Amino acid sequence: MACFTTCFNRKTPPPTKHGITLEEEVSNIQNIILYSYKELRRACDNFRAVNKIGMGGFGSVYKGKLKNGTMVAVKVLSEGSTQGIQEFLTEITMISSMQHDNLVKLYGCCAEGVHRILVYGYLENNSLAQTLLGPNHRNIQFSWNVRKEICIGVARGLAYLHEEIQPHIVHRDIKASNILLDENLNAKISDFGLAKLFPPNMTHISTHVAGTLGYLAPEYALRRQLTRKADIYSFGVLLLEIVCGRCNKNERSPTEDETLLGKAWELYNKGELLELIDASLARDTNMDEAVKYVKICFVCTQEMPKLRPLMSTVVKMLTGEIEVQGKLIAKPGILPEAFLRRNIITGDASSPGYSSIEASPMRESTFISHGTMTFSSIYNRNS
Ligand SMILES: Nc1ncnc2c1ncn2[C@@H]1O[C@H](COP(=O)(O)OP(=O)(O)OP(=O)(O)O)[C@@H](O)[C@H]1O
Ligand SMILES: [Mg+2]
Question: Does the reported pTM lie above 0.85?
């Protein structure tokens, strides 16, 4: 059943290309609540700065409380996403039809005038970037079992996007800030399908270029080959970060030679992987299992995309349903350091407008805007 709040308060809604009014068009949309801008503004107390909980490449996120008391996260999309209302609603319908325990729930949206806003369920424990890898890590005890469940949860959510829904969705931006935790520390993937709301030349990749480059599969970053295997690479990096409790790239020193992934491979070959496992885990951890998870990271991040397993197989490896075969463990593909150096933003990444980047192999098609790295063309969006 289509649900309405006080949206579409225009006096005469324009007819859509199907020759019916927008309200009629909208009434065909299933499972999605349409909010008025006024209602969301009220929920977020006029979008006051104190209610802002984050800012990403797609726009700002505010914490809000709806009239019925439901807490929501309200994502106000930046102007790059102001596509037509009809196209916007079509994409939202598709995104909202994806339902899984490990995906953040999209309640609805607002598409009024220039406003394009998404309304998600509010997750109490913020993102992994904040809690496990960031400044708030001491507030939550991430035991081995909690980490394990988070890894399995993310893998299940991704397997759903990749293999269960039609057309398949490549997330494109699997990283710690896009993994949110509910009150029971269940992992939920956020921002799935969002790239579809932006025109191809605004395709969002990252707000934290150096940090996110740490998640980019080499074939995607260098040759712009986007397939599910690029997400699987990013998942592998995330897996390692969860086990080690550290970011793959040191954001304070993004050009520092060694990534966590490179270091892990080096230690694996020396038989010293235990050095890398988060020291705070020592007491309660099944170290064999932690090492197995690092091996699964290598399986996912190997250079050859074809050899990376599907997510459903990764889930089985994580849960122990299938063994991690030694022959699948291969040297991770890591972007050449020169690529990272060439793609560090020159100038102030946070200032509005386009900044230039130094010459790079992708110079012709790469822009940095608002600290966001964008590719002008992406192939194979849904493969
Ligand atoms: N549903 C939600 N519940 C609680 N907090 C949220 C929710 N969605 C987003 N946030 C918070 O807002 C922050 C910003 O999210 P946003 O997706 O805009 O940026 P990001 O994840 O850092 O980067 P990107 O734009 O690449 O996804 C998140 O890191 C998280 O802390
Ligand atoms: Mg995000």
Answer: no
